[in-house]
Amino acid sequence: MPIRLYNSLTRSLQDLEPRTPGVVTMYHCGPTVYSSPHIGNFRSFLFADVLRRFVEDQGYRVQQVMNVTDVGHLTNDDIESGEDKMEAASRKTGLTAWDIARKYEAEFHDCQHKLFVRLPHHMPRATEYIAQMGAIIDDLLQKGVAYQTNGNVYFEVARFPGYGKLSGKVLEELEAGARVAVNEEKKDPRDFALWKVDPKHQMQWDAPFRSGVRGFPGWHIECSAMSMQLLGPQIDVHTGGEDNMFPHHECEIAQTEAHTGKPFVTIWMHARHLLVDGTKMSKSLGNFFTVADILGKGYSGLELRYALVRVQYRQALNFTLKGLDEARAAIGRVQQCRQRLVRVRDGLERAGADDLAAACTAANDAFTAAMQDDLNVSGALAAVFDFVALANKAPVSVTGAKAALAVFARAEDVLACFGPEPKADATSDAPAELLALLEQRKAAKKNKDFAAADRLRDQIAAAGWRIVDAPTGARLERT
RNA sequence: GGUCCCGUAGCCAAGUGGUUAGGCAACGGAUUGCAAAUCCGUCUACCCCAGUUCGAUUCUGGGCGGGACCUCCA
Predict the structure, then answer these.
(1) Per-residue pLDDT tens over the stretch A192-207
(2) Interface pTM (ipTM) of the complex?
(3) Cβ partners under 8 Å of residue A478, min gap 6
(4) Which nucleotides of B are covered by protein (CB under 7 A)?
């Protein structure tokens, strides 16, 4: 069975059929590094990560690029009133635009790490691809699809008949929107900037195209240049947040296809925006969370990842703190099950005769089928939890425990939201003094001195550990 | 104003024209010296109206309600 994905361009599900058999090229619109990454950003990025992981799980080799936008993304897509996001942040903080970009890029990478993202093969910075952008701009100018006014270069939308095919936007609507600022330089309000001139701008380059003026690139051209340079003129999958569909991706298609004369992307995928407490996340509503905010509340990266990944990317996901608590409990259920299997495998608990062969196959198949169906993570998780219930009840054999653990390891490889295989017993990780207390308690219990035993248990609890009294003996676990 | 999505048991959330999704919470039981942790069990829903159908939560139409995008945003 192939992987079926929803293509925003055709508005339908279609099979993933890479241009080169066995190799899937994917490009993801990455962060604009002007502020701390928030949980909405990471809903998109984790979607891209799960997509990549599952495609690899299905036996493909993936070539994955996620860019870092460190210049040219304006607060308003208009040369007169728009301000570069780096520059705006610079004005507010006193840091240079370059410092802002590097600071938040580092923070982004840190968040990727904390949320268990499998790093893309390339994470190019826009500022390091100015020459490649210039080559495209030069070609578009030569072809007459772009024009230069006062040094600013615009793409002439009227010269690209396919404009609007992704977003469904038509000229009349855009004009009726009346929110497009009037710009006398443009031939058409839809035309968008490829290169901008602004002497006050901190990030400047000599024009990388013929007869140009020193300036900086427009946002849209960046992705076209990096994508083409690193993955070639035609790629299999391109993702982004739903807001990217227009104008960003529409413009990417126009300039790239006008340049190459070939279809740019086979499958466009867009992640639905995250909601928080049932509504759009915004600073003014007080429901705006950065990744650091959530981790600062005591939730782990794993719990946050689970909460952001558990709903299919095209569904509105309502993020709540309660959802994080649910994630914590759900992860615990899976890990508890895995720990028991580890204990059976390692001979610490009595093994039975069930090798779980049929159950393992069924669980893997159900997981695969759900993921093949446009990354239905909820369905895939249901397959995992069904399997948990089965494994918990089964008198599992050593062979069965190994097989079951492989099922979980596979699910973890794709979703990465449960954590690594638990240790059979964390007791040995506890500080020596706690182990001493545990021994004392054992003795107290043997002497039926329950008052002393309970006091020791409280001491251990106060140190952040709990005693688990299992039939096979007492052990310690972190709380 | 234009485009689009959604409305499933206490909460979150899959899916299906006729057979128990799943998670969390709650409750009951097992276990325990008592607990904790854990496990097992119980909890059977599909916004309203009309239509199609032998049969609709699932298809069609209408209504109501919520949300998103069209503007910086993942």
Answers:
(1) 899 999 888 999 999 9
(2) 0.94
(3) A426, A429, A464, A465, A466
(4) 1-3, 5-6, 11-15, 21-25, 31-41, 66-74
